[in-house]
Amino acid sequence: MHKDIDTLIVTPEDMGRIDRAAALDLSSYGLMERAGQAVAAAALRRFPGALRFAVLCGPGNNGGDGYVAARALQEAGAAVAVHALGETAALTGDAASAFACFSGSVAPLSAYVPAAGDVVIDALFGAGLSRDVPQAVADIIEAVCRKAALPVLAVDLPSGVDGRTGQVRGAAFEASATVTFMCRKPGHLLLPGRSLAGDLEVFDIGIPARLLARHADHMRVNVPAIWRLALPEQEGAIHKYGRGHLAVFSGPATATGAARLSAAAGLRAGAGLVTLLSPREALSVNAAHLTAAMLKPVDGDDDLSALLDDARLQTFVLGPGFGDGARARGHVRLLAEGGRRLVLDADGISAFRDDPAALFALFSGESPRLVLTPHDGEFARLFPDLAQDGALSKIDRARKAAARSNGILILKGADTVIAAPDGRVLVNGNAPPWLATAGSGDVLAGIVGAHLAQGMPAFEAAASAVWRHGEAGRIAGEGLTAEDLPDAIPPWPE
User: Of the candidates 161, 191, 217, which is a domain's last residue?
Assistant: First the structure.
């Protein structure tokens, strides 16, 4: 696949426009033929011991792919049973042509009885599904996945998964693998769709890259190629201040650990200096645990104002274990008015739950220098209307929130989304499930802060931090605790 499109994420609506544009220059049936042949090849390669391939075909072009796959499997000598949803006489266009080229018998979908040794090829609905599946399909899904527990190879996306949001529309197949064409769709990456798609194969059926680039939105998978050019320069003569000075606010004496996790991550992620800004009553607790990080007392706005006289101190992390909402709001105001860069996490986000607009106003009208790192609950405190809108995907919510806040939004989870006010969106895919542990988000905040302190633009700083955080989880391994993560942060990718 072309290197510039292998990270592209395309919505079903945009993919429809791409298909229509491709049909002006290419044979649309030829594209369907290549898609169906790719499905058949994947089925034979992945399931060499299958006794029978049960191909379930829908009433649209996804079903057409299924008829092509069934013909190819039959020609390869495999046992094939084809079952159709709806009347085959009602098929139109390329799907009708694909059906006409299939010489075998086709039974109604309701007649399919799962049998031991079957491999189901799900060609009922593709990524364009935006309504609940019919009851007849829900019944087949129940019979295949719950009762018979048969392996499923999905065409484009498991039927029942909304390709735009990744949500389940009534019921959905749980596939062992999915074959999609040209580009990933949001439903392949957003939960629960990602877990239902199984192993994903993206097959190039020959649509020109120029058409993908022309019609696609600014969504990609988060990989180093996206932000590699923004990485900080590693010069031999550079000194510690040249690598950036990061400051992390500590909570009270009973809640200092979260900030120390952020500070440790900031050091490991490359900041030249990290200072923990501690309430005086927590100084002794923090001092007992710090070695490489510095420590300064900050009890209120006056202490912070004095600290901001040092122009070298430009980047801050506020929120992990902080606790005091009123003090958080005062500190954020001073940092915003001083033109500083800020990673706002956890308690820092919650401090503005009663007046999110006040936060957004502080950072409006300029290049983004605010990075927000909410999980779903914290997101709902700042953006309750977006959180409650069931029509929005996680990508939609993050994108709208970034535009509203003029900040970079890291909407955390197993399918973390990074969004910028200008509409750019990345979906992360390298985080292992065991990264979901207490304190993991504090480490992420520290990595983001370190990247900002080293001079990276906010979007690239956030995206690269999410990726390195995921890699740290992979390196630390299953059973990790947050304390393991800073030492596992990998070097910058080559």
Answer: 217
